[in-house]
Amino acid sequence: MPDKRIGILGTGHFIPSKVLTNQDLERMVDTSDEWIITRTGIKERHLVEKGTPTSQIAFLAAQDALKGAKLNPEDIDLIIVGTITPDMQFPSTACFVQAKIGAKNAACFDVSAACSGFIYAISIAESMIKSGQYKNALVIGAEVLSSITDWQDRNTCVLFGDGAGAAVLGLVNEGGILSTYLGSDGNQTGLLYLPAGGSAMPATIDTVNNRMHYLKMSGNEVFKLAVKAMTDAANNAAKKAGISSVDQLDLIIPHQANMRILLAVAKRLKIPEEKLFLNVTRYGNMSSASTAVALDEAVKEGRIKKGDNIVLVAFGAGLTWAACVIKW
Ligand code: UT7
């Protein structure tokens, strides 16, 4: 019997309407539109209304993806949410999404792999469907990063935005996922992390007063490792897919961390800028939602045609990295 091929049946996304521009940030911290654009390429990012949980925007992205897949919520038997801003420590955000869409037949859990979370979740869903135990998986990358951003820290607050993207995975007759490649380096946990609120540093008055519930990042070190890890991940996923080099691919959909990182990755991969899907200027870095939203935008903008080979590639806290080659 030929191998089962798992592919994407539908995609969707949701971006909140509230916009935070670089000019808005100039009024909040010691920064400038010029600095943000030259160092990051970001012009604006979108934020949820305060108090909106991740599951709410994940739910809206999921509805869009189900519509694209022409499936009902009851057809979904697996929901995986990649997120570092879950509604609560537990239950999983996937369970909140399940209740919101009414996918009563689904098993649900979250994946914590930061910006690589959506691709990690795709890889897990692909394996679980391939095993024959599940049929249709709803995979989501969703973040309310504004809830863990320190709006007094100019090193980080200019970078992040909120959003959600989703994909429905199932068996396909043509195309499908050709390879996934995942990696991590647990020796670099201190480069990008949220210190308090977990078992290592439970919440106290002091942790709140010392702003320990906001993300911390050593931007410069992360930058250098990001370029190398994303290049290696894309190359390795291409090789696993039987594609001799990344320049044979039709579109690269990278995690939208920073325009300079993305252009450096393109240069190392020896691919023209036109082959990169870019939306960092409009949304900033949305962690696990970045690749998920970019995938749906690329589909809806007609950037991906039937038969195209594309690669999703990401890098994030952990450190983690991931890539996935898909034939459309
Ligand atoms: O999602 C995956 C993980 N995250 C990333 O991939 C992010 C990776 N890192 C980056 O994107 C970049 O490192 C940043 C955009 C965060 C910073 O850019 P950089 O070119 O690495 O700048 P830097 O950290 O070396 O800082 C340069 C200067 C510093 O001033 P001094 O010490 O040279 O006087 C900073 O204090 O820029 C200063 N600076 C700012 N100035 C104006 C830092 N943030 C700002 C700001 N506005 N918002």
Question: What's the topology here?
Answer:
Blueprint: E1 6-14, E2 18-21, H1 22-26, H2 33-40, E3 44-47, H3 54-69, E4 78-82, H4 93-101, E5 107-111, H5 117-130, E6 137-143, H6 154-157, E7 163-171, E8 176-184, E9 192-193, H7 205-209, E10 216-217, H8 219-240, E11 251-254, H9 259-269, H10 280-283, H11 288-300, E12 309-316, E13 320-327
Parallel strand pairs: 4-5, 4-6, 11-12
Antiparallel strand pairs: 1-7, 2-3, 6-7, 8-13, 9-10, 12-13
Helix pairs in contact: 3-4, 8-9
The structure holds oxa(dethia)-CoA (UT7).
Overview of the molecule:
The protein has 328 residues and is α/β, with parallel strands linked by helices. It folds into 2 domains: 5-174, Thiolase/Chalcone synthase (Peroxisomal Thiolase, Chain A, domain 1, 3-Layer(aba) Sandwich), CATH 3.40.47.10; 179-327, Thiolase/Chalcone synthase (Peroxisomal Thiolase, Chain A, domain 1). The protein has helices at 22-26, 33-40, 54-69, 93-101, 117-130, 154-157, 205-209, 219-240, 259-269, 280-283, 288-300, and strands at 6-14, 18-21, 44-47, 78-82, 107-111, 137-143, 163-171, 176-184, 192-193, 216-217, 251-254, 309-316, 320-327. Strands 1-7-6-4-5 form a 5-stranded mixed beta sheet, with helices on both faces. Strands 8-13-12-11 form a 4-stranded mixed beta sheet, sandwiched between helices. A two-stranded antiparallel ribbon has the order 2-3. A hairpin with a 3-residue loop joins strand 12 (309-316) and strand 13 (320-327). The longest helix has 22 residues, at 219-240. The chain is globular. It starts with 5 loop residues before the first strand and ends with a strand. The site of oxa(dethia)-CoA (UT7) has 20 residues, from helix 2, helix 6, helix 8 and strand 12.
